[in-house]
Structures are given as C-alpha cells and as structure tokens.
C-alpha cells in the first residue's frame, strides 16, 4: 500500500477520533506529497525515496520552528510542532542509533581508506546515499568529524 493511501486512511481515522494534532500533521503530509507529485517535471507517481525526502523535509521544518519557539519561550507553539514531528516521524523508516551509525561509518572509513577530515567529502557522498532516510545528514556529518578527529 502506498504512503498516500495510508495517509488518506489515517486522516479518516483521525477525523473520527477527533485527534486534532494528528489530523494537522497528516494534512501537511498529504499536501506536501500532492505538491511533490504536481511539480514541474515530476512523473505522475512519486517514488518511495521521494516520499521519504518529503517527510524528512517536513520534520526538519518543524524542528527548526520548534527550536525557534523554544528560544522565544512560546511553549504553546513549541508543543504543536513537537506533536506534528511525532506523527510525521511515524511514517519515516526507523532511524539508526548513534552506535549503529558510528559502526557503519567506521567500516566505510576503513573501506575508503580515509585518514583526515579534509577527505570528509568522500565519505559524506557515499554515506548520504546509502543511509538516505535512515540517518540525518547533520548526524552523519557530526559522526564523521568525531571519528576522523
């Protein structure tokens, strides 16, 4: 079953349950997927990788907003963003733990024979492709820096 079908079913369930936070997040996902499908040059069907990228983008936007609201002492708005993040992350693949990420990157560093932070780009390119949807780019970058320093 496609993500779009799942989202539509979950929207109906959220409406029946009168779950406003879940409904807000699901509608945002549906809207973002529709925009991705109708972009210029896009095919009629959206790929799983593209769906994951859309979801990651939504989570990233909400995390940035939540951080801003937290810094401005707007706990009410922060809570709304946090609820939506939780709902959206439910549809993303399971994220790698820090230990799993570090173990993978250690193997990759050994395989590519990288010894300094100056060669970080080599690892980032491969790791970003292979870990797409499973780890955040920022987390990958920080882990590589800590392993190479």
UniProtKB/TrEMBL annotation:
Pfam families reported in the protein's UniProt record: YqeY
SUPFAM superfamilies linked to this entry: GatB/YqeY motif
Coiled-coil regions listed in the entry: none
Domain of life: Bacteria
Any one GO molecular function term: carbon-nitrogen ligase activity, with glutamine as amido-N-donor
Gene3D superfamilies: 1.10.10.410, Uncharacterised protein YqeY/AIM41 PF09424, N-terminal domain (1.10.1510.10)
PANTHER family associated with the record: ALTERED INHERITANCE OF MITOCHONDRIA PROTEIN 41, MITOCHONDRIAL
Protein name as it appears in the record: GatB/YqeY domain-containing protein
């Amino acid at each position: 079953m496609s993500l779009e079908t799942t989202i539509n079913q979950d929207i109906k369930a959220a409406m029946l349950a009168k779950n406003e936070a879940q409904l807000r997040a699901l509608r945002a996902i549906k809207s973002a997927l529709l925009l991705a499908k109708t972009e210029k040059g896009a095919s009629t069907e959206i790929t799983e990788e593209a769906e994951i990228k859309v979801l990651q983008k939504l989570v990233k936007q909400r995390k940035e907003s939540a951080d801003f609201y937290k810094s401005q002492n707007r706990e009410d708005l922060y809570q709304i963003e946090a609820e939506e993040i939780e709902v959206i992350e439910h549809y993303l693949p399971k994220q790698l733990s820090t230990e799993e990420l570090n173990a993978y990157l250690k193997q990759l560093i050994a395989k590519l024979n990288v010894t300094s932070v100056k060669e970080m780009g080599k690892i980032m390119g491969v790791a970003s492709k292979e870990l797409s949807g499973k780890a955040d780019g920022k987390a990958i970058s920080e882990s590589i820096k800590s392993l190479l320093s």
